[in-house]
């Protein structure tokens, strides 16, 4: 399953350049950094 990560951390910013598709494991790791 893929999740959507907001690169700038702003969930309201859904511009294409701000979104990255990540697997759930990678998304969880990204949130800890």
Descriptive account of the structure:
- With 33 residues, the protein is an alpha+beta fold.
- The protein has one domain (2-32).
- Helices cover 27% and strands 30% of the residues.
- The protein contains one helix and two strands; from the N terminus they run E-E-H.
- It has one helix spanning 24-32; strands at 2-6, 19-23.
- It has a two-stranded antiparallel ribbon.
- It is globular, with a radius of gyration of 9 Å.
- The termini are far apart.
- 0% of the residues are buried.
- The mean pLDDT is 91.
Strand adjacency order, main sheet:
1-2
Question: Which spans have pLDDT < 50 for at least 5 consecutive residues?
Answer: none
Helix content: 25-40%
State the shape.
Answer: globular
**SS elements, strand count:** 2
Order of helices and strands: EEH
Distance between the termini: 21 Å
Mean pLDDT: 91
Protein name: HNH domain-containing protein
Question: Which characteristics define this entry?
Answer:
HNH domain-containing protein; alpha+beta; 33 residues; single chain; two-stranded antiparallel sheet
């Amino acid at each position: 399953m893929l999740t959507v990560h907001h690169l700038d951390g702003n969930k309201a910013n859904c511009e294409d350049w701000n979104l990255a598709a990540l697997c759930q494991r990678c998304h969880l790791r990204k949130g800890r950094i």
